[in-house]
Design a protein that fits this description.
Elements: H1 39-74, H2 78-106, H3 108-125, H4 132-158, H5 166-174, H6 176-191, H7 196-214, H8 221-234, H9 238-247, H10 261-264, H11 269-293, H12 295-303, H13 307-335, H14 337-357, H15 361-390, H16 393-424, H17 427-446
Protein name: MFS transporter
Keywords: Membrane, Transmembrane, Transmembrane helix
InterPro entries: MFS, MFS_dom, MFS_trans_sf
C-alpha cells in the first residue's frame, strides 16, 4: 500500500477541482486563510495553549498525589479504585468524541473555553465529594474535559500558527504537560497541610486565570471558512459557494456537520489516514500502560526498586522531557514528523528488553530515562502536530477528537490486558507482551502512516 500523500504540481494547482485534493498555498484566492496572525499573537496563542495543556496535566496529577488520602478517608478499596479508573477512561473517551462535534458546531474557541471552565468547575467540586459515586462522577467529568483540552488545542493552534514553524511551535505547547506535573507538585506541597480537599479548592485558581487569558484567543479562520461554506450551501447560494471554494477547496459532498461518518465512509485518503492513525495510537496507548502507568509498580516488584526511586527518576525525566519535546519538534521540522514517530516507536521494544534483562542500576537508569523520552517527549513533540496535518479542515476537529478517543481506548485495553495477564501469568511475561511485543507492533504500524513534508500549508497536505 502506498501510504504517501501526493504533493501538488504548482503548474496545475490553480486548476484544482472543488474537493479535498491538495492545492498549493499560492493557488488560494485572497481570503481569511492567508491572513498572517502576527508574531505577537502567535506567541500569545502558544503561551495560552501551553498553560491550558499544563493545567490538564495539573488536574490529573493533583488527583494522583492525593489518591491515597482520598481512598483512606472515604474507605475506597483497591478494587473499587480500579472500577473508578475504567469509568474515568470511559468518560474521557466519550467527551473527547463529543468535543469534536462541538468544535464543528460551535467553533474551536468555544470548545476550548468549555473544556477549561468545565475542568475547573469539577476540579473544585472534588472538595465536596462524600463517597465513592460522587467521587467517580466529579473525577470522570474533570478528567474528561481536561483530556479533551488536547484535541481542541491540537486543532485550534495548528490551524492558526505559521506553517513554516508549525511543528516546532506545537512541540512547545505539548511540553506544557511536564509544566503541569510541577505545578501540581508545588500546589500539593503548599496546601496539603490543610487536607486533600483544600488542594482541589486552591487548584481552581490557575484554571480561572488561564480562562481569562483564553478569552482573547481568536477563532480559527479555517473553521470560519467551513462555517460560511455550510451556510452558503444551506441557503443555496452557488456564487458564494464558488467564491469560498476558490479560497479553500473542500469536498462539499462530504461536508456533513458533526458526523464521524466522514472519517470512514469513503475509500481513499481520509479513511486510510484514520485507520492507520487509529491502529498506531491504540497500540501506543496499550504499550504505554506498561512503559509508563505501571512502570514504578513493575520495577518495585520485579527489580526490587523502591517506588520512590522510580518516581524520582521519572520526575527528573519529566523535567528533561521539556527539552526532548523541543528536540522532537526540531527533528520533525528537519526530517518530517513521520520519521520521528518511526524512530521513537522503534526504540521502545529494545529499551523495554534492556530493562527486562539488565540488573545493573546504571543501565536501568539510562534505559528507563530514554524509554520515558521515546514514549513522551519525542513522540508527543511531533505526534499531535502530525494528527492536525493529515486531516483536511472539513474533518480535522472530528479526526483529532477521534484520535484522543483512540489514545484513551488504548489505555483502557492496555489496563484490561494488564489485569488479565497479571492474574494468569507472571509480571515478567506481562512486560514482554505489553511493553516489548506491543511496543514492536506500534513501531511496525508507524511505517503505514502517511508521509508529510514539513513546512506546508494545511491545505497543501491533507486531502
Amino acid at each position: 500500500m502506498d501510504s504517501r500523500i501526493p504533493q501538488p504540481d504548482p503548474a496545475t494547482a490553480s486548476r484544482a477541482p472543488a474537493g479535498d485534493s491538495p492545492v498549493a498555498p499560492g493557488a488560494l484566492a485572497p481570503g481569511p486563510l492567508d491572513t498572517d496572525p502576527g508574531r505577537r499573537y502567535t506567541i500569545y496563542l502558544v503561551i495560552v495553549a501551553l498553560l491550558g495543556w499544563a493545567l490538564a496535566a495539573y488536574d490529573t496529577n493533583l488527583f494522583n498525589l492525593t489518591i491515597a488520602d482520598i481512598t483512606s478517608e472515604l474507605g475506597i478499596s483497591a478494587s473499587a479504585l480500579g472500577v473508578m479508573g475504567m469509568l474515568v477512561y470511559a468518560a474521557e473517551f466519550a467527551i473527547a468524541l463529543w468535543m469534536g462535534r462541538v468544535m464543528d458546531a460551535r467553533g474551536r474557541r468555544f470548545a476550548w473555553m468549555l473544556c477549561l471552565i468545565a475542568a475547573g468547575v469539577f476540579t473544585g467540586l472534588t472538595f465536596f465529594v462524600q463517597g465513592f459515586w460522587s467521587l467517580v462522577l466529579v473525577r470522570a467529568l474533570a478528567s474528561g474535559f481536561a483530556n479533551a483540552e488536547l484535541a481542541v488545542s491540537v486543532t485550534l493552534v495548528n490551524e492558526q500558527v505559521p506553517a513554516r514553524r508549525r511543528g516546532m511551535l506545537y512541540s512547545i505547547v505539548q511540553s506544557g504537560y511536564t509544566v503541569g506535573v510541577f505545578m501540581a507538585s508545588g500546589m500539593y506541597l503548599l496546601v496539603s497541610g490543610l487536607g486533600w480537599r483544600a488542594v482541589f479548592l486552591f487548584g481552581v485558581l490557575p484554571l480561572v486565570l488561564v480562562a481569562i487569558a483564553r478569552a482573547k484567543v481568536r477563532e480559527s479562520p479555517r473553521y470560519l471558512h467551513i462555517r460560511s461554506l455550510r451556510a452558503a450551501l444551506g441557503r443555496g447560494d452557488d456564487a458564494e459557494v464558488a467564491r469560498l471554494q476558490r479560497v479553500m477547496p473542500v469536498d462539499v459532498s462530504q461536508l456533513e456537520k458533526g458526523t464521524f461518518r466522514q472519517l470512514f465512509s469513503a475509500a481513499g485518503g481520509v479513511r486510510r489516514t484514520a485507520v492507520s492513525l487509529s491502529v498506531t495510537w491504540l497500540l501506543y496507548g496499550m504499550s504505554y500502560v506498561a512503559t509508563n502507568i505501571y512502570l514504578a509498580y513493575w520495577m518495585a516488584e520485579v527489580k526490587g526498586w523502591a517506588s520512590s526511586a522510580v518516581a524520582a527518576l521519572l520526575l527528573v525525566g519529566g523535567a528533561a522531557g521539556v527539552v526532548f519535546y523541543l528536540v522532537g519538534g526540531l527533528l520533525g521540522e528537519r526530517f518530517g514528523r513521520r520519521s520521528v514517530l518511526i524512530g521513537s516507536a522503534a526504540a521502545i521494544a529494545p529499551l523495554a528488553l534492556v530493562i527486562l534483562v539488565s540488573e545493573r542500576s546504571s543501565v536501568l537508569l539510562v534505559a528507563i530515562f530514554l524509554l520515558f523520552q521515546a514514549t513522551n517527549g519525542t513522540w508527543s513533540g511531533v505526534g499531535y502536530t502530525y494528527q492536525a496535518e493529515v486531516y483536511p479542515t472539513r474533518v480535522r476537529a472530528l479526526g483529532v477528537s477521534w484520535m484522543s478517543g483512540m489514545l484513551v481506548g488504548g489505555f483502557m485495553l492496555g489496563s484490561l490486558l494488564w489485569a488479565m495477564l497479571t492474574a494468569t501469568t507472571s509480571l515478567t511475561s506481562t512486560w514482554i507482551i505489553i511493553a516489548v511485543v506491543l511496543g514492536a507492533a506500534q513501531a511496525v504500524s508507524t511505517l503505514f502512516l502517511p508521509k508529510v513534508a514539513s513546512g506546508q500549508e494545511l491545505e497543501a497536505i491533507a486531502r
